[in-house]
């Protein structure tokens, strides 16, 4: 497997990452916010918050992999996440592993597939520390389909919104998964056409 520009190459076949393909969709909320604060300020805020999100995400991944995490930075968020895991998760099925869809020629790296207490099948989760945007639903639908194609019996798509005030589990409507996945595929096709 190799990375070439915006694509991954596996056995000579080109795969675009889910999040890369979804970048073709302009985010109206984000554009309005940029208009209000200005591009320079928006870039500064996004880089600062992006660094925060990346650091928290890396610590959550370590928790999911069973490592003992003693966070110094963002300790409150990591303690909240550890408590959520302790209270809710029976088993981690997959953590931060790139999966490939031969059927649809895309790939993605879901944060985790986990089985929650009281359930028999895994759900796909995406950990978010910032604002929640509509295209995250498309991202999670793409991850669910990746899981299914790779032999995981994925049940629900869930956003975990983590802040220093708590964690909110945001299950997505199961009735609209097929529609959200179809929208993802359209975005992927536009992206592929535009970048070929």
List the helices and strands and how they pair.
Layout lengths: L1 E3 L2 E4 L2 E5 H5 L5 H10 L1 H26 L10 H14 E7 L3 E3 L4 E3 L3 E5 L6 E6 L6 H15 L7 E7 L2 E6 L5 H18 L2
Parallel strand pairs: 3-6, 8-9
Antiparallel strand pairs: 1-2, 2-3, 4-7, 5-6, 7-8, 9-10
Helix pairs in contact: 2-3, 3-4, 5-6
Account of the protein in words:
The chain is α+β, with helices and mostly antiparallel strands. It has one domain (2-194): Alpha-Beta Complex (Lambda Exonuclease, Chain A), CATH 3.90.320. It has six helices and ten strands. It has helices spanning 18-22, 28-37, 39-64, 75-88, 135-149, 177-194, and strands spanning 2-4, 7-10, 13-17, 89-95, 99-101, 106-108, 112-116, 123-128, 157-163, 166-171. The strands form two sheets. The protein has a five-stranded mixed beta sheet with strand order 1-2-3-6-5. A five-stranded mixed beta sheet has the order 4-7-8-9-10. A hairpin with a 4-residue loop joins strand 5 (99-101) and strand 6 (106-108). The longest helix is centred in the first third of the chain and has 26 residues, at 39-64.
Proportion of helical residues: 40-55%
User: Which spans have pLDDT < 50 for at least 5 consecutive residues?
Assistant: none
Shape: globular
The CATH topology label is: Lambda Exonuclease, Chain A
End-to-end CA span:
20 Å
- The tally of helices reads 6
Sheet-strand content, in percent, reads 25-35%
Strand order of the largest sheet: 1-2-3-6-5
Classified by CATH, the class is Alpha Beta
Q: What is the average of the pLDDT values? A: 88
Throw out a few tags for this protein.
196 residues
């Amino acid at each position: 497997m190799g990375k070439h520009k915006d694509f991954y190459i596996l056995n000579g076949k080109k795969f675009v990452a889910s999040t890369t393909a979804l970048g073709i969709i302009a985010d109206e909320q984000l554009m309005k916010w940029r208009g209000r604060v200005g591009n320079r300020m928006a870039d500064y805020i996004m880089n600062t918050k992006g660094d925060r999100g990346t650091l928290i995400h890396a610590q959550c991944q370590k928790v999911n992999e069973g490592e003992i995490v003693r966070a110094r930075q963002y300790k409150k968020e990591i303690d909240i996440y550890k408590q959520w895991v302790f209270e809710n998760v029976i088993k981690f099925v997959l953590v931060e592993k790139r999966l490939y869809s031969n059927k649809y020629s895309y790939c993605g790296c879901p944060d985790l597939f986990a089985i929650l207490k009281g359930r028999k099948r895994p759900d796909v989760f995406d950990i978010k520390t910032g604002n929640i945007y509509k295209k995250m639903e498309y991202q999670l639908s793409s991850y669910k389909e990746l899981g299914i194609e790779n032999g995981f019996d994925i049940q629900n798509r869930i956003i975990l919104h983590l802040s220093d005030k708590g964690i909110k589990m945001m299950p997505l409507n199961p009735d609209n998964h097929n529609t959200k996945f179809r929208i993802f595929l359209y975005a992927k096709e536009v992206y592929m056409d535009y970048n070929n």
